[in-house]
Amino acid sequence: MSTAHGKLEELKRKVFFTFMLLVVYRLFAQISVPGVNASAIAAYFSESGGGIFDLINTFSGGAFKRFSVLALGIMPYITTSIIFSLLGEVIPQIAELQDDADGQKKIAKWTRYATVLLCCVQGYGMAAVFEGFKSPGGLAIIPEPGMLFRVTTMITLAAGTMFLLWLGERITEVGLENGVSLIIFAGIAVELPSEVLQKLTLYRNGELPGVSLLVFFAVILIIFYIVAYIEKAFRSVPVQYAKKVVHNRTYGGTQTLPMRVDTGGVMPPILASSLLAAPTTFASFVGEGNPIKPYLDTIVQSLYPGQLLFNIFFGALIVYMTYFYAPIQFKTKKITEMLQKNNAFVPGIRPGAKTKEYLDFILNRLTFFGSIFLVVICISPTLITGQQTSFGGTAMLILVSVSIRVMMNIQSFMYADRMETAYKARGKYNGQNRRF
To answer: Taking the complete model, does pTM exceed 0.85, yes or no?
Structure first.
């Protein structure tokens, strides 16, 4: 009983430590970059909305629209991590490093350096773009623009992202694990209550019909249920292991190889959204007197979330990114080699190349279904409700997947404690006659 109580106390400490670090994250997200008029930027976004920047603002927990020191969020680190994962597929030297423990440390170091460089580029561009923005009252968001402000903002935003990365590593080491995912989860979850309150306020003021409010909440519940169901769905592939007897116990036999139905996960919608944000970002750098400015403005308006052209391009990019990213997540070649090393095979399929072809066939079928699922989840909320919402498919995917992973980590922690207690109770864990 004392051991179980000690494990429970340890779990409580992990939960409390994770909660406190997330509180620190939320406190720093309220601090604006030096030289920014906080009231002017709040008035600007309340009047103009945000458009494609709403997704960036959602991932940053509202820090983007505040021009906070954490405005870039953790997304630059995720972007560079994906880039190195993709490079491992085309550059053999990086692929060899990924298979080695020391090599993974080198790649992690390179990823951090690349993150700092990307943060500097994005921070400088963000400062240059916001210098031209003004509030509806005519107040400049940046009262004193110039090179000093741009450099200061660049350094501040890069430091903010690296601070978030450090917080995520501390959560992974001491807290509930998956620190980076939990930071993204907290950034999205903290923005959801404000939208619910906004909808309720519009309904009380008579600006939102009751039917629209019911449809809004019905869409949220249905999407939540579908995402939770699909995220926990697996395609089980039977695998036969060679049987062997050790200490009068038989090991091996038939087991299963689980393959996620949504193999691509949440990354295809994020990558697709980042690509669609590129024209808006590029148009922000073009001056008003430039002859191509009107054409860029037309393209930006056509790619506004909820527009037909945006939905078409968004869906096509999600399908492409799903087929592109799924083989990176589930590497059939490595799994085939692992099965051969462990004297395992898929019943009815020859080991080696035939097994790889069979797994590729199943992966392609699952990827097709997963891509259609992502397109429907990410586009349908806007089509049904007729407006952009923070309760979109991308946000729901992140919330549900991170929640499931955290619950699995807690269950694994408690299950390991039960197994240890059971072995000690039976006298097989410690003592002179221990068997392990």
So the answer is: no
